[in-house]
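Q: Please design a sequence for this.
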């Protein structure tokens, strides 16, 4: 396990705070959600509708195909494309894209936009909170021993050449002590231009929260747990690439 520390060149391609809710019937209507435009427009001027698409096929003598869509909410992007809000009938997601700054700034802006969303839709309950960090670990090449940079690499059967031409792993780890679930995904796909491993860490807790204070305290805890997973997944040699 690498020592936990601040990385000045953190390999984060996207950091997310996600809060799922149940809303009153009126607040789930798309026209009501559109009322958020006025509050977000000045700092998040690029607006797009989030759609849910359905494809229906009926087999038999009267074979038919039908495609339909339903608006779920809106996606607002900042003028410099570094921050994104997704406000839907099921909750709010706030994302920070490169350049990532730090947790305090992510949390501060996430909390600000959450309060705008919450004051507008008046959620009945908060049912799930999550933090998710997607990291792109670009490692020195052109040839590499992944074991020098990652602590958990898929094992090639001994009868085969000990070479990794690509890998994908996804594990789901429930942690009763931390009262959360972690989904850890590692993905490597060869590229002629770089050696890069995607390390995606999604940590969440599902329950009916007492209110905002408990939900945000939980998000702080989940972020700490995410850090534990990240630094346990890499070696000190990887840290030196990004410190």
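A: Design:
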């Amino acid at each position: 396990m690498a020592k936990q520390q601040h990385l000045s060149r953190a390999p984060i391609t996207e950091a997310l705070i996600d809060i799922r809710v149940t809303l009153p019937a009126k607040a789930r209507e798309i026209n009501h959600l559109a009322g958020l435009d006025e509050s977000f427009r000045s700092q998040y001027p690029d607006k797009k509708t989030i759609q849910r698409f359905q494809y229906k096929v009926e087999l038999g003598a009267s074979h038919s195909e039908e495609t339909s869509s339903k608006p779920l909410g809106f996606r607002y992007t900042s003028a410099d494309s570094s921050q994104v809000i997704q406000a839907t009938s099921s909750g709010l997601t706030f994302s920070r894209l490169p350049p990532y700054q730090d947790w305090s700034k992510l949390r501060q802006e996430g909390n600000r936009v959450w309060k705008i969303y919450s004051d507008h839709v008046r959620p009945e309950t908060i049912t799930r909170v999550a933090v998710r960090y997607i990291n792109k670990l670009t490692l020195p090449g052109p040839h590499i021993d992944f074991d020098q940079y990652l602590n958990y690499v898929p094992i090639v059967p001994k009868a085969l050449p000990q070479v990794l031409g690509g890998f994908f792993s996804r594990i789901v780890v429930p942690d009763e002590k931390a009262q959360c679930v972690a989904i850890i995904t590692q993905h490597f796909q060869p590229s002629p231009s770089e050696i890069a491993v995607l390390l995606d860490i999604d940590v969440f807790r599902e329950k009916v929260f007492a209110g905002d204070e408990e939900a945000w305290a939980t998000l702080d805890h989940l972020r700490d747990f995410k850090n534990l997973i990240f630094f346990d997944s890499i070696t000190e040699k990887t840290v030196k690439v990004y410190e």
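Q: Thanks. Anything notable?
A: The chain has a mean pLDDT of 93. The first strand starts at residue 12 and ends at 22.
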